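Narrative progress, year one. The postdoctoral researcher (J.K.) led the effort to move from monomer predictions toward full complexes, under supervision of the PI. The following entry was the first complex the group processed end to end, covering 423 residues in total.
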Amino acid sequence: MLRYIAELHCLMMRFAPQIVTPLEVPVSLDLSKFYHTGKDPNEKEFIDEAASIQNLQSSEKDDDLTYTLSAVVVHQGALDYGHYYSLCRSSASYGTGWVRLNDHIVSEVTESSVLLEAKGGVVDNTVSASSNAYILFYVRNAK
Amino acid sequence: MWIVQAPLLILACYLYAKRWNSHLSQNETNVAIQTSLSLDTGFNSTGSTWIGGSDEPTVGYWKSRGSSVSTAVGLVNLGNTCYMNSILQCLFSLKAYRDEVISTPFKANSVGEELKALFLEMQASNASVSCSRLAHSLGINPRIQEDAEEFLLQLVNRVDDSVSEVGTEKSQPNGCRAPSHNIKFTSHQEIRCLYVEHLSKKRQNNVDLSLDMRGCTSLQEALMNHFRPELLSGDSRYRTKDQGLQDAHKSTSLASLPHVLCVHLKRFAFDPDTFEMRKV
């Protein structure tokens, strides 16, 4: 009997719309806490591809360690079905500066709307309950 | 037995139906709000040009004022390729990556060459563009939906592989760098044993930073969790070469910072209620 209910529960849960937990996505991100140059004498042991990448970015110590949100991939729906669309900062300095690209449909959006869509979950009834940010692109601020 | 089961079954169905209904009605209002929003933004705000249908935008692109280059272009869905379109549109909008792809020489008929052609077409386009040739060169079946993050990794790596004469970076200081050099970063992992003298270091090149989202309410919290030192003890003790299993501290940090950081939010986790993967 219990097993019967459990199976039914599983079946219904699979098709029931899911609510995701909202996640605050900041416009500005500081990575200085997690960044260690790790310059100690033993470091020479690790000369590999990694080192060549680091050489290319050798000037980074003088740079800013803060990032600005620049593009978001939003996922709507559940695991095995769903839809992706993107929110990108348009490189122009007019308007709201953000566009929503949903396949062939391009429309202008405000930054507050971008953050709301990225946060996801049940927010103000404007964002669908099962949609939230999946991939975030942060661009490093110029010094 | 059935006399007991039947009312319970009906009750269960009723409860689920109620749950469904509340969601559906909410979704309907969402759709209504969304359409009214997109109608409101039938824009021609401050000199920028929006070209597309006035009531139902079906074809669109975005041009900056006084420029002939499109900065945001719609991509045609080839069936189930929204995961591909969204990643391509994001990468296109990232100037650092777009310019790098356009200026890099690629092998003929390679994935990189196709991406370059697509980006050039998008820049010059006044309408939606199709990415079918790129999909073909990647061997993608457009009818099957895939994971956007896996596609991102695959694309970035395949594009890097198709740079003509990879590995000649040192002999050619100005050219032939992998286009992903401003996306990829190095993470550094350190495992230090508590009771014996042992230190293990590992460096890894990554395209994106994958963060576990469970129990987090903000991105900063997820980052803190990711980089928090972890104690390996009990079942998860660290296996050393000479001294067997040992308690150890594991810590991760970033050894280099990229110009563009891709953060992947791990949304799909195992749900013990349904014994299935689900979104969190």
